[in-house]
Specification:
Blueprint (H helix, E strand, L loop, with lengths): L2 H24 L3 H16 L1 H7 L37 E3 L5 H5 L1 E2 L2 E3 L2 E3 L5 E2 L2 H5 L3 E5 H6 L3 H11 L1 E2 L4 H4 L13 E2 L3 E5 L2 H10 L3 H4 L9 E3 L2 H18 L6 H15 L4 E3 L2 H17 L7 H13 L3 H11 L10 E2 L2 E10 L2 E14 L4 E4 H4 L5 H18 L8 E6 L12 H13 L3 E2 L2 E3 L2 E2 L5 E2 L4 H15 L5 E6 L10 H8 L3 E6 L2 H9 L17 H20 L1
């Protein structure tokens, strides 16, 4: 027997018991059995090369020579996913769903000016790690990365997971590389993101509704009941334990709950924006530690909220300064005809604030109706224009029973150079028109917000807390005397979550909030004069706002009739 045959016998004897262990473990998988047999045959066929590779190099200059490939390297195993220590199904959240990160890639290394690769450089993606479990992907990032969305759909539909080069698939690179065999894919893919992207994909991609069939929406608010408040307190406790924060006492928990309701803009709701709530708790923890406290109290939470506002309210402070210095004209005392303080809300990123502004009306004979100067100047959005048209309908429905509405009236937001949108000023504009038509002055110490319908009902608007607080800050600077306040829709009362300072001022009678259901209720608050109800004879009581308004419109109708003659 020659040495070569003897070496093979020895090698076969040495391998048999180890290979048998693998056959016992993986023999039920046909591909594994075939692979084990092929490995043994290949080792025996290349035994001389393997033995010679174990010798030390004889030449001292061998380090300068191109290294000889290790013939045993091809027998190593590339384990791309290891779930041996995992309990339950894998849950993978891929925050950066590039094509390579999701579906894997074949790495390459430079050797003497050439890029080389082999199967040991195959790397798994998140889809491989989540196979058999759940894969969670932010949809905004998914659609932003080229190729990821389309490959994901193909993977789900075909139930096969392939590792391929994106550049090669797009036709940019045609170099020869490895193409691993596809593997079965069975995982639940969950896309998380904004509802607008869902609707966009649903409308623009016919395959989207077929691949992603189950939709789940999460509300940004929840009911503020005893059970949910308890759950909120547990959430705070969990956050403090997890991040090593100081715990909150009862006053601190109550302050966070109040802040959550303010985020929800509803005193009957709690916000589910837990990231923002968590940030407040973390910042309150800093102030508590800074003050040497061993617990977070209401004062620390309030200080954190105030600090957050301070970091974002520069523009609000500049506008307040312009009003206080008289650059922007807003009256907070006295009475004026055809002039009302309106309230707008401005949003800058994560911060919203209220801005008072002067709304005025002028009126004369004519047939032009209600003219919106903002619209004439292309500074009005469609919703604001709709509001002006609705108030025209209200005036027509109420005062044009016996003759056409023969009037030319103009409405404008004074010193407005940035455009107007929204219908929350339509009731304010209605009051200014009724004031100038009736000749009854409006109290400038009261500001107004709310939209109106054609029946004269005042409807709910957004940003009511910020609007009230914006006018309060101006009145506080000029001196609260008990006459100041804000008229709001009655349906917005449930949304009131005002700052503690404003609440105290209201309790002390220094500031007022007047909820109204109709235009008649609002005009009585603003003028102190009864609105007047329509009698059975079709007229209003003498001396009331509606009576004087109707009389003025009748006079304008007669003037227009005489003019046409």
């Amino acid at each position: 027997m020659c040495i070569r045959d003897s070496n093979k016998d020895v090698a076969s004897y040495a391998m048999d018991h180890m290979l048998q262990m693998l056959r016992d473990k993986y023999g039920g998988i046909e591909e594994c059995s075939e692979y084990i047999d092929s490995v043994k045959d290949d080792i025996l066929a290349n035994l001389d090369q393997i033995i010679s590779s174990q010798k030390e190099p004889e030449s001292p200059l061998s380090f300068m020579m191109r290294p000889t490939p290790d013939p045993t390297e091809k027998y190593s195993v590339n384990l791309i996913v290891d779930n041996s220590k995992l309990e339950g199904a894998p849950v993978i959240i891929e925050m950066n769903p590039t094509h390579n990160y999701l579906f894997g890639t074949t790495e390459k290394e430079a050797r003497f000016g050439a890029l080389v690769t082999n199967y040991t450089m195959i790397r798994a993606g998140s889809a491989h790690e989540a196979n058999g479990g759940f894969l969670v992907i932010p949809v905004e990032e998914l659609v932003r990365n080229p190729g990821s969305y389309e490959t994901l759909k193909r993977t789900i539909v075909n139930k096969k997971l392939e590792i391929e080069e994106l550049a090669e698939r797009l036709g940019y690179v045609t170099t020869k590389s490895l193409r691993p065999e596809p593997i079965p894919f069975d995982a639940k893919v969950i896309l998380v993101g904004d509802s607008q992207i869902y609707y966009m994909l649903y409308q623009l991609d016919p395959e989207f509704k077929k691949v992603f069939k189950v939709k789940a929406e999460f509300d940004t608010t929840m009911d503020r009941d005893e059970e949910n408040v308890q759950q909120y307190a547990k959430f705070m406790c969990t956050l403090c334990n997890k991040e090593g924060l100081l715990h909150l006492d009862s006053s601190g928990i109550a302050a966070v709950v109040e802040y959550s309701s303010r985020l929800a803009s509803d005193r009957e709701k709690l916000s589910t924006k837990f990231a923002e709530v968590s940030d407040i708790i973390r910042e309150a923890n800093y102030y508590a530690q800074e003050g040497g406290s061993d617990i977070i109290t209401e004062d620390h939470v309030r200080r954190a909220v105030e600090a957050k506002v301070y970091r974002s309210n520069l523009i609000e402070e500049k506008l307040e300064e312009m009003i206080e210095r008289g650059t922007i004209l807003v009256d907070t005392d006295g009475e004026k005809v055809g002039q009302v303080n309106g309230l707008a809300v401005m949003g800058i990123g994560d911060y919203m604030f209220g801005k008072p502004s002067r709304i005025t009306a002028s009126v004369g004979a004519g047939k032009d109706g209600i003219i919106d100067i903002e619209r004439q100047s292309d500074m009005s959005g469609p919703t604001h224009t709709k509001g002006v048209n609705i108030l025209t309908g209200f005036l027509t429905n109420r005062y044009a029973k016996k003759h056409p509405l023969s009037v030319t009236a103009r409405l404008t937001f004074e010193q407005n150079y940035g455009g107007v949108e929204g219908d929350s000023a339509s009731s304010t504009e209605t009051y200014s028109l009724m004031s100038i038509l009736s000749g009854i002055p409006i109290k400038q110490s009261i500001a107004v917000t709310g939209s109106v319908n054609q029946k004269g009902e005042v409807q709910a608007i957004g940003g009511v807390n910020q609007k009230i607080e914006g006018f309060y800050e101006l009145c506080k600077f000029r001196g609260l005397d008990g006459s100041h306040g804000v008229v709001i829709p009655d349906s917005n009362v449930k949304n009131l979550m005002l700052k503690e300072e404003v609440v105290e001022a209201i309790k002390e009678g220094k500031f007022h909030v007047y909820p109204v259901k109709t235009i008649d209720e609002g005009i009585e608050v603003l003028t102190g004069v009864p609105a007047g109800e329509l009698g059975d004879d079709g007229t209003y009581p003498e001396g009331t706002v509606n009576y004087l308004t109707q009389r003025k419109l009748d006079e304008l109708a007669e003037i227009s009739k005489e003019y046409l003659r």
